[in-house]
Amino acid sequence: MTKQIDLTRRRLLRNAAFGTAALAAGADQVFGQRVSGPPNIVFIMADDMGYADLSCYGRPDFSTPNIDNVAAKGVRFLQAYANSAVCSATRTALITGRYQYRLPIGLEEPLAGRDVGLPPDHPTLPSLLKKAGYGTTLVGKWHLGLLPKFGPLQSGYDHFYGFREGGSDYYAHDSNLWDDDIQAHQTGYLTELLGNRAVEVINGYAKAGRPFLLSLHFNAPHWPWEAPGDEAESNRLRSVPGGGLMDFDGGSQKTYQRMIQALDLQVGRVLQALNANGLSENTIVIFTSDNGGERFADTWPFTGRKTELLEGGLRIPAIVSWPARIPQGHTTEQVAITMDWLPTLLAAAGSPPDAAYPPDGVNLLPTLTQNAAPFERKLFWRYKANQQRAARDGDYKYLKILDNTFLFNVADDPMERANLKARRKDVYDRITAEWYDWNATMLPEVDESTTSNFTGRQLADHIGTPPTSGKADIPAPPKTPSAAPQ
Fold first, then answer.
1. What is the distance between the alpha carbons of residues 300 and 311, in angstroms, rounded to a whole number?
2. Which letter, b or e, does each residue of 260-274 get, where b requires 16 or more Cβ atoms within 10 Å of its Cβ?
């Protein structure tokens, strides 16, 4: 990567302001291309999809032609990260554009059983777009707090169809499927039901002639491992004593394949709806995942899984198309992260972020529309289970798991094998100090928050891994060497 560029907050806000001003001007010519009106936005998020689970990212044993079509018409990120190795925390970062650790909901890894949620008065991507005249709808997974205090309609969405918890059975969803704030009672395969509603939403907004944000957050390919036609498996899971959604005795590569292909089919239906309504040219379509892959996922060339700050738990597919403005068929080595989407999409819509809640993410429009050269990033993570910490600075990554610490060059060594912390002690010390400085600006971990990890009892490739203690990791800054005696 090129030499490090010092990206101060002032410079980032100036860059974001440039993109916002250019697009808000309503000019026919922006970045040398003609468009009319603000873009529609279709944000598609898979759940627990591995980096290489799409054929356009190298999956060798099946194809995902519809999602690949989005990549063919846009830009595919090769170094995209999730804000967390689990879902609730990443979704907090997505909807706020900020590190999730700034809010109590962001300390949940994932949210499970606690009365915590996204504060309704916090500015969000849908609430800010709503102020700019957009219609806003969430179809699919919410997982940022339960009624009556929290919910999509309380945080900027005009409409909601989906489920509020962290997961849902693909068939037995009668008790947790919602239409706005009223329980819905519909039968069918969940991925298809979400696709059906997404198509209806697009048709409705097209008829109204109103710009819109459609957040389409699929359950797939999250467990339980149920593909189309597997209703008998759903019934079996509910009959097993102690069984449930986590489904440790089911699934296979073939089932997982069929789940992803069912998702790809619904993405194709969404793209067809945009095309049929004449919306394809001026609609931003984003496809990504909330975190790295789970047990059947393909995370090559990385190691690690969901709940781990190894690259396999954080690296995700990320694809963006906007035919009116983004050149087709490109890839980019730009390092990106989930919280970048809020400033990027607000800039595209010509809407500024809330000044009281400046984004931690950056505006990626120059990368997407002008094929700008990659700039270096400093990104930070922590995960309470197993006291994990990580930071990415340029090509280097600091990683801590329990008492073990590492420094990797993840550009040259994506599998994270060669520990350079002694060989490049200067780099290790610098990034470690940066992590401590950053962590001091975030909320501290708390014992009460949920956190989870996979153990040796659950997954054979995690032999020897114990359950997490759940205790908060409150690190003290590293000691600096004492001054030499006078």
1. 10
2. bbbbbbbbbebbebb
CA distance 124 to 152: 10
Q: How far is CA 397 from its chain centroid?
A: 20
How many angstroms separate the CA atoms of 193 and 238, rounded?
A: 21
In terms of Cα–Cα distance, which of 111, 167, 53 is closest to 449?
111
- C-alpha torsion sign, points 246, 251, 253, 255: negative
Alpha carbons 80 and 332: distance in angstroms, whole number: 10
Q: Count CB-CB contacts under 10 A for residue 239.
A: 8
Separation CA 417–CA 119 (nearest Å) = 41
Q: Cα(378)–Cα(4) distance, rounded to whole angstroms? A: 10
Tens digit of pLDDT at every position of the chain (486 positions): 433 333 333 333 333 333 433 343 343 444 433 457 999 999 999 999 999 999 999 999 999 999 999 999 999 999 999 999 999 999 999 999 999 999 999 999 999 989 999 999 999 999 999 999 999 999 999 999 999 999 999 999 999 999 999 999 999 998 899 999 999 989 999 999 999 999 999 999 999 999 999 999 999 999 999 999 999 999 999 888 766 788 899 999 999 999 999 999 999 999 999 999 999 999 999 999 999 999 999 999 999 999 999 999 999 999 999 999 999 999 999 999 999 999 999 999 999 999 999 999 999 999 999 888 999 999 999 999 999 999 999 999 999 999 999 999 999 999 999 999 999 999 999 999 999 999 999 999 999 999 999 999 999 999 989 999 999 999 887 765 444 444
